[in-house]
Structure formats: C-alpha cells, structure tokens
C-alpha cells in the first residue's frame, strides 16, 4: 500500500519556540493532505486541508497564524506550530490520498508534541 | 454536515470469538465512503476496510467485514476470530465531499476501545 511518512515522531520544545512537522507521500502524488490533532483518548479532529500550490483550508476554531501549513509540492506538506505553548501539546497526524477518487486515506505515523 | 456516531466507548471480546463494533453515520450527500481504522497504542492509524456508498456488496478484508446497511445508515465492523493483537482503538470515518467540486474531508467517530481477553 501507499506510504505516508511523518517526521519527527516525537518532539519536545520550549514554550515560545516554533516546531515544524513534515508529511511526505513516498510513493504517490498527493494533491490534498490533511492535518489532524488528537488529544489523549479522543478522536481525530481535522485541523486543516492542505492543497498543493494554494492556501490551506482551516476548520472553524483553528488559528491560521498559530498553525501554518505549507503544501509546497505534490509529495510534501508541512505544519508549523508557531510560538508553541503547553496547551499545544498533542498528537498531530497527517493523511493523504493518491487522488480525489481514491478510496484509501493513508496516514503518517503521527507526531507527539510536548511543549515545556 | 457529516456526522459519525460510535456508541460503544469500550468493548471486550474473548480471544477467537467474533465482535461487532457499531457505527452510524449521517450525511445528505449521496456519494460518500466509509472507513474503519485501527489505532494501537503507538498512535499510527491502520486502514482496515472501505465501503463506498454505491457498493452493492459488503466489503471484506481477511478477518474484517463491514456490515453496510444503507437504509439504516449503519456501517458496523465485524472482526472474526479475534486475536490478542486486535486490542486497540477503532475508529469509523466517513469521507464526503465538501463545498462542491472535488474537495472532500474525513470525519471520525469518537472511537471504540476493543480489548481482547485471552
């Protein structure tokens, strides 16, 4: 099956710093990638839809300036958590599909962010 | 708006027995897809099975089958011959178009924590 690689898997950063998370589709082109956030023992919440070559579409309540998304190529999307605070600590996970008609949405391994 | 409901926060099953995880959905769009994912404690999301809204047959993938009842808007996951490694969180999700055109998004249920007992 298709592979989506997410890096880093874990990151600890100091409050006030920025953290960049990468999501790569390794063996297919992904016009659209999705970024989710998951709190412990809860479901995945869609943060934004990342479209190659255009601005991301953010879900209601997600701060665009806090969570910067860049989809520079058909195989790479990045999520930057700017000026991170302890409340941003969470599990972030991306997904991608080979095409708009694809059936499967493949997920990255996820990134556990801890802000201290 | 799309909505996925998983009413079982937790389920227990004996090893080698079958278990059904419930999922109901709501959408006004005639074209949609239903997914089940497994999330072990490591956090990765493992795709299990997919059912398209126009598929006539219930989807099956090895020990996983999806009991798709379109009129009732339900898409229950059946795991046969449970194994200890099946213990994990299971999420039902629906993929449906948004805003017209080719855009879509995946909406997840709250999940069911399955524990397989030896």
Give an account of the 3D structure.
The complex is a heterodimer of chains A (116) and B (118). Chain A is an all-beta fold. In chain A, 0% of the residues lie in helices and 51% in strands. Chain A has no helices and eleven strands. Chain A has strands at 4-7, 10-13, 19-25, 32-38, 44-51, 57-58, 67-73, 76-81, 90-96, 106-107, 111-115. In chain A, β7 (67-73) and β8 form a beta hairpin. The N and C termini of chain A lie far apart (37 Å). The mean pLDDT of chain B is 93. In chain B, strands 2, 5, 6, 10, 11 and 12 form a six-stranded mixed beta sheet that branches. Chain B has 118 residues and is mainly beta. Chain B has strands at residues 3-5, 10-14, 19-21, 24-26, 33-39, 46-52, 60-61, 64-69, 74-79, 88-97, 104-108, 112-117. Chain B is 0% helix and 53% strand. Chain B is built from no helices and twelve strands. The A-B interface holds A 1, 32, 34, 38, 42-46, 49, 57, 91, 93, 95, 100, 103-107, 109-110, 112 and B 33, 35, 37, 42-45, 47, 50, 52, 91, 93, 95, 102-111.
Total strands of chain B: 12
Q: Please mark out the parts of chain A with pLDDT under 50 across 5 or more consecutive residues, or reply none.
A: none
**Could you spell the SSE succession of chain B in H and E letters?**
EEEEEEEEEEEE
Computed structural class of chain B: mainly beta
Oligomeric state of the chains in view: heterodimer
Order of helices and strands of chain A: EEEEEEEEEEE
Distance between the termini of chain A: 37 Å
Average of per-residue pLDDT values of chain A: 90
Alpha plus pi helix count of chain A: 0
- Give the percentage of residues in beta strands of chain A: over 45%
By helix and strand content of chain A, what is the structural category?
Answer: mainly beta
Uncertain spans of chain B, ≥5 residues at pLDDT below 50? none
Radius of gyration of chain A: 13 Å
Tally of DSSP β-strands of chain A: 11
Helical fraction of chain B equals under 10%
End-to-end separation of chain B: 41 Å
Number of helices of chain B: 0
Q: Indicate the overall shape of chain A.
A: globular
Instruction: List the chains of the largest interface with their residue counts.
Output: A-B, 23 and 23 residues
The largest pleated sheet of chain A is described as: 7 strands, mixed
Give the overall shape of chain B, derived from the CA principal axes: globular
């Amino acid at each position: 099956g298709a592979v989506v690689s997410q890096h880093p898997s874990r990151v600890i950063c100091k409050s006030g710093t920025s953290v960049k998370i990468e999501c790569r589709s390794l063996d297919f082109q992904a016009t659209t990638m999705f970024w989710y956030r998951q709190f412990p023992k809860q479901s995945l919440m869609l943060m934004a839809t990342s479209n190659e070559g255009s601005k991301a579409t953010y879900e209601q309540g997600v701060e665009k300036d806090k969570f910067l998304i860049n989809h520079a190529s058909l195989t790479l999307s990045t999520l930057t958590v700017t000026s991170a605070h302890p409340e941003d600590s969470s599990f972030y996970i991306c997904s991608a599909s080979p095409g708009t008609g694809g059936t499967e949405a493949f997920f990255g391994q996820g990134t556990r962010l801890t802000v201290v | 708006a799309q909505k996925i409901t998983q009413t079982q926060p937790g389920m227990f099953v004996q090893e080698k027995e079958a278990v059904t995880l419930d999922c109901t959905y709501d959408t006004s769009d005639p074209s949609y897809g239903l997914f089940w994912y497994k999330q072990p404690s490591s956090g990765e999301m493992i795709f299990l099975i997919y059912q398209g809204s126009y598929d006539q047959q219930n989807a099956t993938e090895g020990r996983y089958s999806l009991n798709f009842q379109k009129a009732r808007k339900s898409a229950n996951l059946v795991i046969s011959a449970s194994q200890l490694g099946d213990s994990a969180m299971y999420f039902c999700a629906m993929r449906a178009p948004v805003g017209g055109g080719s855009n879509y998004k995946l909406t997840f249920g709250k999940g069911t924590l399955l524990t397989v007992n030896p």
